[in-house]
Amino acid sequence: MPRAYQSSPLPYSPRTAGPWARKISVNRPRFGGSRIPRSAAKAYVRRGPAGPPPRHRRLRGSAMRLRWAAAGVLGALCAAAALVGVAFPARAIVNCETSRDALDAGELQMLALVNGARQQAGLPALQPSASLNRAAAWMSEDISRTITRTGTLSHTDSLGRSPSQRARDCGYPGSAGENLALGSTSPEAVFSAWMQSPGHRANILGSFYVVIGIGHYQGIWTLDFGTVNDAGAAPTPSATPPRTPTTTPTPTPTPTPVPPRSSTTALQLYSGFNLVTYAGPPAPPQQALASVGGVLVAVYHWNAADGTWQRYLDDAPAWANSLPLMLPGEAYFVGVTAPAVWSYDVPR
After folding, report:
1. Is the pLDDT score of 182 beyond 60?
2. Rounded CA separation 117/94 (Å)
3. 165 and 277: one domain?
4. 21 — phi, psi (to 5°)?
5. Where in the chain does DSSP place strands (E)?
6. pTM over 0.85
7. Contact of 113 with 223, CB cutoff 8 Å
8. Count of CB atoms situated within 10 Å of the CB of 126
9. Does residue 120 sit within a domain?
10. Which end of the chain is less packed: N or C, by CB atoms within 10 Å?
11. Alpha carbon 177 to its chain's center
């Protein structure tokens, strides 16, 4: 998905930014690079296990270039989930203890800002989800505990979980996209920085998201977005039906089977590598990515089972490729040489 850091004129305050604000530094992807000064720091958005995919010769130096927001004071990351209405079985809450999961005044203000922007874009408001609130609050507190040690802002938490894994551990029955920011307690300042970043803005204005979770802790903000509505609605009381006389049933004609329908998902890809979650049916990479075949270079997927990267290189022989299928619900690094819209059908 789109990723970027944009500048934002936030005032620097060591008191609000935290004792680690002057110490933070960012690592470039480990493509033979090294640690660089914060003044010239660049980072990349990632989800899933540690380590970026190998660099492809045709995308050298072009993948995942991002900027720290607000001159290094406000940092932000985003991860997106493109799973349209894909639900998973309910799970017990594990490793999701947090001091609170109800929205405070600042978080309610952030919710109003998000839904105000969606209203202006002609999109429905996001409903607060208790499970995503819990996941977001846990993540903000987790970052506050680890940032002084790691010096980096990452969607992978201290337990090695991606946003979707963490959301499901907190009771959410689907996948999650995520925005992160640190360095300001002001909802307006953080929201403004997110809206200036294509990746974060895409999450906030994602038409397929229906619920949201918000967590703020000591200048650290987490927004979790979900495609499955678990906000719940009050059940409608049912009246006792009146007694009716028994009648002879009329035979019901057999309905004609209706073929399954599908909806089309369209994702904006930017030049370089884009971290996306695939929601279509299982398909070979060249088939799943047929709509961007003219600019496609490579696809990488982390296989957690054996700790290896699977790859598909568009111009490589079959024996050099190790990614046979793209599966729904899995995250992939998709590399393209130019901006393109990736569209595919999602079964309903």
Report:
1. yes
2. 33
3. no
4. -60, -35
5. 75-79, 127-128, 176-182, 211-217, 220-226, 262-269, 272-277, 296-303, 308-313, 331-336, 340-347
6. no
7. no
8. 24
9. yes
10. C
11. 2
